[in-house]
Amino acid sequence: MAEALAKSEFTGTGHAPAKSFELFARPTAKTGLVGWLTTVDHKKIGMLYGGFAILFFLIGGLEALLIRTQLIVPNNRFISAQLYNELFTMHGTTMIFLAVMPLNAAFFNLLVPIQVGARDVAFPRLNAFSLWVWVAGATLLNVGWISHLVPSWNFGGAPDVGWFGYSPLTSKVFTPDLSTDFWVLGIQMLGLSSIVASLNFIVTIINMRAPGLTMMRLPVFTWMALVTSFLLILALPAIAIALVEVMFDRNFGTNFFEVSGGGQPILWQHLFWVFGHPEVYILILPPMGYVSEILPTFSRKPLFGYPIVIFSGVAIGFIGFGVWSHHMFTTGLGTVATAAFAIATMAIAVPTGVKIFNWIGTLWGGHIVTRVPMMFALGFIWMFMLGGFSGIMHAAAPADAQQQDSYFVIAHFHYVLIGGATFALLAAIHFWFPKFFGRMVPEFWGKVSFWLIFVGFNCTFFPMHFLGLNGMPRRTWIYDSNMGWNEGNLFATIGAYLLGLGIFTYFAVLVYSFFKGQKCGNDPWDARTLEWSIPSPPPEHNFAAIPQVHARDAWWYEKTHQEEIAKEKAANIKAEEAHGGIHIPDQSWYPIIAGMGLLFGTYNLAQLKHPVVMFGNQVLGSHAPLAIAGLSIVVLACYLWSLEGPGGYHIHLDADGNAKESGGYHH
Amino acid sequence: MTRTRSAHRKVLRFAIALIAGFSLALSSGCNKLHQVFSLSGPQSTMVTEGPVAKSQWDLFMVTVYVTTFIFIVVGAVLAYAQIKFRAKSDADEHAAVPAEAGHGNPFVEIGLIAGSVALLVIIAIPTLSGIWYTHDVPEAERGNAIDVTATGYQWWFKFDYNAEMMPLPGGGEAALVTGNELVVPAGTPVRVHLRTIDVIHSFWIPKLAGKVDMMPNRPNFVWFKADKPGYYYGQCAEYCGESHAIMRFRVIALSAADYVKWLANQKQPARTVTVQTAAADAALPHVQFASLTLNDGRAFGGSPGFDADPLTAWRKIQQPAASENASLIAAGRKLFKDKTCVSCHTIRGHDGAGIVGPDLTHIGARSSVAAGALENTPERLHQWIKDPEYFKPGNKMFHGFGGMQGYMKPDDKGGTVPNIVLNDQEIDALVAYLHSLK
Amino acid sequence: MSAPAATHTPTAVGHHEPSKFHIYIQIAMILAVITGVEVVLVYTPIVKWLVVTALVLLSAVKFMFVIFFFMHLRWDKMFCTILFFIGLVLAGGTMWALLHLFGADAGKPLSAVVGLLLF
Amino acid sequence: MSSHAATIDHHHDSTTSTGIPNKKLLWWAFLASDCMFFGTLISTHLVYRLNPPPGNAIPTQVFNIELTSFSTFILLMSSLLMALAVNAIQRGNVRSTRTMLLGTMFFGCIFLGGQVYEFGHFVHMKHMTLSNSLFGSTFYTLTGTHGTHVAIGVLLLGMMYVRTFKPAAGGGLSMNFLHMLAVAVAAGVAFIVFVPGMIEIIYGAGIGEFLSSHAVPLSVGAAACIAMAWFARQSSTVEFGEKNAIDVEAVGLYWHFVDIVWIIIFTAVYLLEYL
Ligand code: HEA
Ligand code: HEA
Ligand code: CUA
Ligand SMILES: [Cu+2]
Question: Which residues of chain B does C109 touch, with a Cβ-Cβ cutoff of 8 Å?
Answer without folding.
Answer: 136, 191, 193, 219, 221
